[in-house]
């Protein structure tokens, strides 16, 4: 008799993953294992992306197996442009499928949007731990969507910033963000105002052309570049990309998917996993960029943690 898979809603995923900080230790291990090659036990191809040209959308397929967790997953994620602030349908939607690796049985179907938001923010926090300036007082977030909230949550848990700033193309959304989150957030009227003097900058926008320029960035600052996940999209200009020390989650993926990397011609210094392993240095004394594209194994780690928590509470 076949087993009925569990179906976990966004609320149930939230319940079993209350804090993104829970993801930091297993994600550090997964990133290091990924950068160790085949002996690290992480098997994942670069994501497959199917354009839905008629509707300006994309379907991404992201499978992975992690030997450390003995976990097998795939994520299906859709992204549609120009949803607009009045749309009730989010620009990104995702579902994660968790399988029993020994026989391929489907164990669970989970809302993937919460997983994506929390694991992406956790990886940015890991990068920031290694790459931020030693004395970091000002955090700047560019963008006010789901990723802005998840990054703010974990960054205010993990780090002690004296000031947090936010900018968004639609100022009302930035003001809503500042009114919603716990803690004081300064709403800025321009990107330049927001980033001037900032020690850590997070870009989580839907920009397709550069919005962050090197001449505005404080020397020695660290940037987590999370948006611009297509090869023809940009968030950062050439000056910033070429002058900063560039770290990525996956070199293979960055050279295929990141417009910031491809169109600037910037040279990748290291994968984040190589820094975690200690085989490449963290140049926190220099301006650094972590280009985050998101990896399937990150979803695998999160899905396994959530499923184990759910199973133990049945």
Automatic annotation (TrEMBL):
UniProt entry tagged with the keyword Transmembrane: no
Enzyme class label: oxidoreductase
GO molecular function, one term: delta1-piperideine-2-carboxylate reductase activity
Cell location: Cytoplasm
GO cellular component, one term: cytosol
Catalytic activity: (S)-cystathionine ketimine + NADH + 2 H(+) = (3R,5S)-2,3,5,6,7-pentahydro-1,4-thiazepine-3,5-dicarboxylate + NAD(+); (R)-lanthionine ketimine + NADPH + 2 H(+) = (3R,5R)-1,4-thiomorpholine-3,5-dicarboxylate + NADP(+); (3R)-1,4-thiomorpholine-3-carboxylate + NADP(+) = 3,4-dehydrothiomorpholine-3-carboxylate + NADPH + 2 H(+); L-pipecolate + NADP(+) = Delta(1)-piperideine-2-carboxylate + NADPH + H(+)
Main subcellular location: cytoplasm
InterPro entries: NAD(P)-bd_dom_sf (IPR036291), ODC_Mu_crystall (IPR003462), ODC_N (IPR023401)
EC number: 1.5.1.1, 1.5.1.25
Gene3D superfamilies, sorted: NAD(P)-binding Rossmann-like Domain, ornithine cyclodeaminase, domain 1
GO biological process: negative regulation of transcription by RNA polymerase II; sensory perception of sound; thyroid hormone metabolic process; thyroid hormone transport
Keywords: Cytoplasm, NAD, NADP, Oxidoreductase
Protein family membership: Belongs to the ornithine cyclodeaminase/mu-crystallin family.
Binding partners and assembly: Homodimer. Binds the thyroid hormone triiodothyronine (T3); T3 binding inhibits enzymatic activity.
Function: Catalyzes the NAD(P)H-dependent reduction of imine double bonds of a number of cyclic ketimine substrates, including sulfur-containing cyclic ketimines. Under physiological conditions, it efficiently catalyzes delta(1)-piperideine-2-carboxylate (P2C) and delta(1)-pyrroline-2-carboxylate (Pyr2C) reduction, suggesting a central role in lysine and glutamate metabolism. Additional substrates are delta(2)-thiazoline-2-carboxylate (T2C), 3,4-dehydrothiomorpholine-3-carboxylate (AECK), and (R)-lanthionine ketimine (LK) that is reduced at very low rate compared to other substrates.
Protein name: Ketimine reductase mu-crystallin
Taxonomic path: Eukaryota, Metazoa, Chordata, Craniata, Vertebrata
Gene label: CRYM
């Amino acid at each position: 008799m076949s087993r009925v898979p569990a179906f976990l809603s966004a609320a149930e995923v939230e319940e079993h993953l209350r804090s993104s900080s829970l993801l930091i230790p297993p994600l550090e291990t997964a990133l290091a294992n990924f950068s160790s090659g085949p002996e690290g036990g992480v098997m994942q191809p670069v994501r497959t992306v199917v354009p839905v040209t008629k509707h300006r959308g994309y379907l991404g397929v992201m499978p992975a197996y992690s030997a450390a967790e003995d976990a097998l997953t795939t994520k299906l994620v859709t992204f549609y442009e120009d949803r607009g602030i009045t749309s009730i349908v989010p620009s990104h939607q995702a579902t994660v499928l968790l399988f029993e690796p020994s026989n391929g049985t489907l164990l669970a179907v989970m809302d993937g949007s919460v997983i994506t938001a929390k694991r992406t923010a956790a990886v940015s926090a890991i990068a920031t731990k290694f790459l931020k300036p030693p004395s970091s007082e000002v955090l700047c977030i560019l963008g006010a969507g789901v990723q802005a909230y998840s990054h703010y949550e974990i960054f205010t848990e993990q780090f002690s910033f004296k000031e947090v700033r936010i900018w968004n193309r639609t100022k009302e959304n930035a003001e809503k963000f500042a009114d919603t989150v716990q803690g004081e957030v300064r709403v800025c009227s321009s990107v330049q105002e927001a980033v001037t003097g900032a020690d850590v900058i997070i870009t989580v926008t839907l920009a397709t052309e550069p919005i962050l320029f090197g001449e505005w960035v404080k020397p020695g600052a660290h940037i987590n570049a999370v948006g611009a996940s297509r090869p023809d999209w940009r968030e950062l200009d050439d000056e910033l990309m070429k002058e900063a020390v560039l770290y990525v989650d996956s070199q293979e993926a960055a050279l295929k998917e990141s417009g910031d990397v491809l169109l600037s011609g910037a040279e990748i210094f290291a994968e984040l996993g190589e820094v975690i392993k200690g085989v490449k240095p963290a140049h926190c004394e220099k301006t650094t960029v972590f280009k985050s594209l998101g990896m399937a194994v990150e979803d695998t780690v999160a899905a396994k943690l959530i499923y184990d928590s759910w199973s133990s509470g049945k």
